[in-house]
Amino acid sequence: MSEKQENAGEPSFEEALKALEDIVQSLESGEAPLDESIALYERGNKLRAQCQKRLDAAKAKIEAISLGKDGAATGTQAFDAD
Questions:
Q1: In this structure, are residues 48 and 20 in contact, taking their beta carbons and an 8 Å threshold?
Q2: Which among 26, 29, 28, 23 has a CA at the least distance from the CA of 45?
Q3: How far apart are CA 45 and CA 8, in angstroms?
Q4: Closest CA to 13 of 42, 60, 53
Q5: Band of pLDDT at residue 80, cut at 50, 70 and 90
Q6: Using an 8 Å Cβ cutoff, are 27 and 37 in contact?
Q7: CA distance 70 to 73
Q8: What are the tens digits of pLDDT across the range 4-58?
Q9: Which domain, by its residues, includes 43?
Q10: What is the number of domains present in the chain?
Q11: What's the rounded Cα separation, in Å, for the pair 77 and 63?
């Protein structure tokens, strides 16, 4: 299953991040009733998980370019954050 098929029905990373920012703003305002705040928190938690999943997938795709002694690219290697 391709990544697009896997994420079908989910908002894009940018849409999810914007929705998450809106939820945080609503919760921080303190104006939402308790039940609505709980629903917002639950939705925000799902959006946070979706964003983290997409970030982890993007990180796994990043490759570092290996350079030879002459400075020319010799290939790629998997990204290592450590």
A1: yes
A2: 23
A3: 19
A4: 53
A5: low
A6: yes
A7: 9
A8: 545 668 899 999 999 999 999 999 999 999 999 999 999 999 999 999 999 988 8
A9: 3-78
A10: 1
A11: 6
Q: Is pLDDT of 1 > 50?
A: no
Tokens of 66: 């290996």
Q: Which residues of 36-50 are buried (b: 16+ CB within 10 A; e: fewer)?
A: eeeebeeebeebeeb
pLDDT of residue 23: 97
| 3-state class (DSSP) for residue 7 | coil
Q: Which tokens in the block code for residue 54?
A: 């997409």
Q: Which is more confidently placed, 79 or 40?
A: 40
pLDDT at position 17: 96
Other CB atoms within a 10 A radius of the CB of residue 3 amount to: 10
Which 3 state secondary structure label does DSSP give 31?
coil
3-state secondary structure of 6: helix
In a 3-state reduction of DSSP, which class is residue 30?
Answer: coil
